[in-house]
Structures are given as structure tokens and as C-alpha cells.
Amino acid sequence: MNTEQMINYLRSTHNKDLHQDYLDHIRSYDSFELSWILVDDVNSDLVNINTNKVSLYSLLDESTVPPIVVADGVIIDGYHRVTVAKAQGQMTIPAWIGYTYRPRC
To answer: Exposure pattern of 26-42 as b/e (b: 16+ CB <10 Å)?
Structure first.
């Protein structure tokens, strides 16, 4: 998935009005690839989590929850989903992973 496709994905699953700084950050990656990652490898302790939202997410069928978005080990979208996955003892979570390709020297 290229960056514009990722932005459209986030608008469809998250919020149509994404902040410009958020968009610029997403555009700093060349592509996003869908994979499974270890839940414990993702730091979800960087923001204040809405506990009501976590409670609601914990009731969802995990097969219908959209993958999180991460890059450089940092969550771009999905803090609540990772918090729920950790609380439920899940080992892995689906994730779109951001990649930047740099030319080799």
C-alpha cells in the first residue's frame, strides 16, 4: 500500500479530517505492508488511553477490528487496539507496517 492509499485507509477507519502533521508523518514512509507483529514489541504507553473506548473495543470480535498502523516501532493508529490485545493476552496483532526505502551507498 502506498502512502496515499494508507491515508485513505485511515480516513475510512479512523477520521476523515486528519491533521496535517499526521498526514506529513504518514507521507514520510514509502509504503505500508500488512503483516502480523508481536504485541509486546509495540509501545502503547505513550498516550493517555480512553478507558471507555478500551472497554468498547474489548467487546468487539477481533476478526473484524482493522489492523493497527505502525512504523519504526511506534503506533501511528491503534493504541486502543494494542491495549486491548495486551489485556486479552494476545501474542500477535495484524499491522500495517511503514517502510522507508533508502538508496544503498
So the answer is: beebeebeeeebebeeb
